[in-house]
Amino acid sequence: MSELATLARPYAAAVFKRAKETHATATWSQSLAFMSAVLKNEDISVVIDNPKVSKQRLSALMLDICQEHVNQENENFLKLLVLNNRLGLLPSIAELFEAYKAEDEGYIEVEVSTAYALSKDAKQDVTATLEKTLGKKIHMNVTVDKSLIGGILVRAGDRVIDGSIRGRLQQLAKRL
User: Fold this and answer.
1) 72 and 17 both lie in a single domain
2) Range of the structural domain that residue 69 is part of
């Protein structure tokens, strides 16, 4: 993953810079997300990985699939990725783009895993606590993971806050 991120970073930075210049971050965000979703399709990934498929045919295929979800600049970017054999980086580019966008807009994406579903009040409490702890507005995505046994696990960028029973048991096992 770190190698992919290293390769994707210059592309993501350039795309974000261009999106800011043209006031089109939302459009780029949607287009990159769609193109990434297309690449995650197994049938498409087989075609992309096939060395017998020319770059021109691959570009034409991707543009045909994405035609209603991309503008001229998105098309040019897609062609550039195909030309440079970097199409596989698109999901990483989209992820980095979203991180740049979040940083620019002053929020952070937070993944929260809990052992049980959170009530509306509990979500508000967790949101308020995390905003205070992280010093930014947050966009929280909550998932239920029964393997946590109890508590909460928070991932915010490269920061992890493990307040789960499973995490505490693992720490105790290490100490013993």
Assistant:
1) yes
2) 2-102
